[in-house]
Amino acid sequence: MEKLSKIGRYEFLAEPFHCDFSNHLFMGHLGNHLLNAADFHSNDRGYGMNYLNTVNKTWVLSRLAIEVMDMPKAYDKFFVETWVDSALRSFTSRNFKIVGESGHVYGYGKSVWAMIDLDTRHPADILAVRGGLITEYIETEYPCPIEKSSRVKLLVGATPIRSIDTYYNDVDINGHINSVKYIEHVLDLWDVAWYKQHCIKRFEIAYVAESHQGDRLHFYREGRDSDTDFNVRITKSNRDSAEVEVCRCRVQFV
Amino acid sequence: MEKLSKIGRYEFLAEPFHCDFSNHLFMGHLGNHLLNAADFHSNDRGYGMNYLNTVNKTWVLSRLAIEVMDMPKAYDKFFVETWVDSALRSFTSRNFKIVGESGHVYGYGKSVWAMIDLDTRHPADILAVRGGLITEYIETEYPCPIEKSSRVKLLVGATPIRSIDTYYNDVDINGHINSVKYIEHVLDLWDVAWYKQHCIKRFEIAYVAESHQGDRLHFYREGRDSDTDFNVRITKSNRDSAEVEVCRCRVQFV
C-alpha cells in the first residue's frame, strides 16, 4: 500500500433532502459525513473496519464532539478533513475539520475511538494491530481549536421527557442502534419553532452502552448554566431489563 | 445552457452507515438517491427546483415505485440513471434505472410529479414553464421494465398498528414531512427478524396530502393475496383536525 498523507480529505455534498426547513444540513447528516470520513481514512491506510473485520475486531465510537460556526446549505460542496492525533493502547483520538470549497471553515470535530474484539466484546490493543501501523499516521500539528468533550454530569431523579421505540431503520451493520440515530433523536427533543430561533453551536455525545432494535429509549434533559445549554441522557429498557444508561450528550445553541 | 442528453447518470456510494444489519443499502436511502438524481437531472436541464423557486413554483412528488432484484452492499458504487418519459400539463412521469459499476442492474423506479404554485398551492401548468422546455427532453425508448404504480385500495375500518409523532428531523425545506421519512416509517412496521427472512422486492407510495411537524401519523396495514404483499395507509391527525389520509403504500417482499 502506497504511503498516504496523515490527513485525509473527503468531498461531500449537502444534499437537498438532508437539509432542514432553513435549507441547512442537518447535524445528524454532518455527523454521518464525519463518520464516513473516519471510515474512508482508516480503510485507506490499512487500519479501518475492512481490515479489522478480517481479524475479528472493530472500531467503536466512544465520544464525538462537533462545533460549528455555521452549516453548509443545500447543494454546497464541502470537505471533511480528518486525522488521528493520538493513539494509545485502548483509545485513539481523531480530529475533523469541515471546510468549504473556497476554504471557509464551517467547524471542527473531535472523537475518541476504542477497538474491541468481536467475540469477547472486550477492548483490543490498538497498537498491536499490524505492528502499530496507526502510529505512523499521528498528526499533532494540524490545529483543531475546539475543546475536548466535557464530562456530562449524570442527571438523577428526573422523569424522561420522551420515550421512543427503536425499529429496523435504526439498526446498523453491527446490529446496534446507529450512532447517528441517537444524534437525531436527541435533536428532535427541540421542535421546529425552537430551531427558528436557535442554531446548534456544539453537540457532544458519549456512547456508554449499545442498544438494540426493540429497546425503548428514554430521554432526560436538564438545563445547564444558560438557557441555551443542555445535558441530555439516554437510557434504554426492554422486557428483560431495567433502565440502563446508553448515551450522555451536551447540546449548546446560540 | 449547453444541451444535455435526455438521460442523466449520477454516481452514488452505498455508505456503510446507510446500510442495514445485512450490509445492504436501506430502501429509504435508495429512495433518497433517486430523488437526488431527479433533482440533479432537472436542475441541470433548467426545469428543476432551483429555477422553479425563482418563479414561485415547485415540483411535488406524487407517486414513487421502486422494484429491485437486489440492493447495493456497503461501499458499492452505483449509478442512478433517470429520464422523463412523458410530460403533460399536470403531471410528468420520470423513470429510474439503478446500475452497478460493471453494468449489473439492481432495479428500476417509476415516479409521477406534479408542479404547484407556491402561493396558491394549486397545480401549475408544467408545459408553460420556459416554453415547454421539459418536452425537449422526453425519452420514450429507454426501457424501464417494471409496472406502473397500482391503485392501492383504501383500507377501511381497521385500527392503526402504530402511531408516531413527527419531529424536527422529519421536516424538509418546504416545511413538510420529508418523502423519504414516510418510506422509512412504513418499512419500520416490520422488524429485524422479518428482514432476516425477507427482502423488499417492490415498494410503492402515493402521496395524497402533506403533513407537518407535530402531526401524529397513524399506520394501517392489510395483507393482500399473498402473505408477503401488503397495503399500508398513513393518516395524520393533530389537535385541530380529525384523521386525514396522507399516503398509500404497497410493499412486496420475497
Automatic annotation (TrEMBL), chains A, B:
Pfam families the UniProt entry points to: Acyl-ACP_TE, Acyl-ACP_TE_C
Domain of life (superkingdom): Bacteria
GO molecular function terms noted in the UniProt entry: acyl carrier activity; fatty acyl-[ACP] hydrolase activity
InterPro entries associated with the record: Acyl-ACP_TE_C, Acyl-ACP_thioesterase_NHD, FATA/B, HotDog_dom_sf
Keywords for this protein: Fatty acid biosynthesis, Fatty acid metabolism, Hydrolase, Lipid biosynthesis, Lipid metabolism, Transit peptide
Assigned protein family: Belongs to the acyl-ACP thioesterase family.
The protein's name: Acyl-ACP thioesterase
Organism (species): Prevotella jejuni
